[in-house]
Specification:
By secondary structure, this protein is an alpha+beta fold. The chain has 14 helices and 10 strands. It has 2 domains: about 5-60 and about 260-410, no CATH class; about 65-260, no CATH class. Helix 1 crosses helix 12 and helix 12 (about 315-355) packs antiparallel against helix 13 (about 380-405).
Length: about 425
């Protein structure tokens, strides 16, 4: 034999037919339970990763990776700032913007709106709004023509389409001979976009930067400069560098801080779901305890003979741990393979199930994400498989320890 005695006997016991078929049944249930638990964990975490990635991309279609803000009354030297920061190798785009709030009205319809003044050509370097247009384009915004691009939900609420006129009321007043009047300006709808998030589609509008400067009386100032990076996960680091380089002059913020509550909530949900589904694996793994306890009882005579022949208690313990580990390895492997296959084909399998049964899991009139996205990460697969196997190893310790404590004389007394 070219393998250790404990491993050889453990494998022999695993392959041998059971006199007690109930033990085999429990072993099979344990193996399938581990496989189902691992498979469910991999698929669910992949789908949740897919949702997180999809939402992050939609948010970052509007929100910049890094935002540099100036003083309260605006940023004056924004051109020099843009020229300075674009020297960083990780910054691939920079664009000035104006942030303000107002109310859009048409006939009797009124809607509060976040206004962003942009330079259309520069905006395409820092956001994906240009690719989210349903009608029109950002290039339709021309200085002095007072065009406006609005979200699809906002257009529906106001009942407007391309070419229609809307009135923008800004929170600033004009002093006239007849008293103080709110400032109003007529805009023409030149584009309609759809990000896929109600927060933006229902209360977001774009106008040309120069029109915003005239409307809000900012002269040549802007609210800040928006940056796009080659790696969005470097945003906190780049923001800190800018803050240190221009200490006291500018304030830098990144996308992780602007939506910190949202991403923390998503991460907490993933963690809770991981723990809940891991309990399925734990229950299946600890079924191995009952399997091995019955096996130890069934093999009392064999254990006594092996001890009499000189096998140490540690060797007896290793024999039964080998059996439990084999159940865990097979269950984990089956679950991992099944989970990987399902996670890589979720976007194909779900539509097929919907078509087969005539149902829709994510209805378009309720959800903006109408397909189940999947983003399988190998780190998740490795972690899940490792934890599942570790649980099975832990589950084998007590039954194997009981087997090692068997006294040969007591076990053989009634044989």
């Amino acid at each position: 034999m070219f393998k250790p005695l404990e491993l050889f006997i453990g494998l022999r016991y695993t392959r041998a037919k059971r006199r007690n078929h109930f033990i085999s049944f429990i072993s099979l249930i344990s193996m399938l339970g581990i496989a189902l638990g691992v498979m469910a964990l991999i698929v669910v975490l992949s789908v949740m990763n897919g949702f997180e990635k999809e939402l992050r991309e939609r948010i970052l279609g509007v929100v910049a990776h890094v935002t540099i803000l100036g003083e309260q009354d605006g940023l004056k030297d924004w051109r020099e700032l843009v020229a300075s920061v674009t020297g960083n190798e990780h910054i691939v785009g920079a664009a000035p913007y104006i942030h303000a709030e107002g109310m859009l009205t048409r006939s009797s319809s009124v809607s509060g709106t976040v206004i962003r003044g942009i330079m259309p050509l520069e905006e395409e370097k820092v956001s994906q709004l240009g690719s989210k247009m349903l009608r029109g384009s950002l290039e339709n915004l021309h200085a002095g023509q007072y065009g406006i691009v609005i979200g699809s939900e906002l257009a529906f609420a106001l009942g407007v389409d391309m070419g229609d006129k809307v009135t923008l009321m800004v929170p600033q007043a004009s002093v006239t001979p007849v008293g103080i009047l709110p400032r109003l300006k007529r805009f023409t709808v030149v584009g309609i976009f759809e990000i896929g998030m109600y927060e933006y589609d229902s209360a977001f509008a774009l106008i040309h930067l120069e029109d915003a400067q005239r409307l809000f009386r900012l002269q040549d100032k802007v609210t800040g400069v928006r940056l796009r990076l080659d790696n969005m996960f470097l945003a906190p680091q780049i923001a800190r560098q800018i803050q240190q380089e221009y200490v006291g002059r500018y304030r830098a913020s990144d996308w992780t801080r602007q939506h910190v509550n949202f991403f923390r909530a998503v991460q907490m949900e993933k963690t809770v779901m991981f723990v809940i589904l891991l309990l399925i694996v734990a229950v299946a793994a600890f079924n191995i305890v009952s399997t091995l306890v019955m096996m130890v009882t069934d093999k009392h005579g064999d254990i006594a003979i092996l001890r009499t022949l000189g096998l140490s208690p540690g060797g007896i313990m290793a024999i039964f741990m080998v059996q439990g580990c084999i159940i865990g390895v097979i269950g984990t492997m089956l679950g991992t393979i099944g989970g990987i296959i399902l996670a890589l084909n979720v976007e194909t399998l779900v539509p097929a199930i919907e078509q087969l049964f005539g149902i829709k899991f994510l209805a378009a009139d309720v959800y903006y994400i109408t397909e189940l996205p999947s983003d399988m990460r190998w780190t998740d697969v490795i972690n899940i498989s490792s934890i599942a196997f570790l649980l099975t190893v832990i589950a084998t310790i007590y039954p194997a320890w009981r087997a090692a404590r068997t006294q040969p004389a007591e076990a053989l007394r009634y044989e």
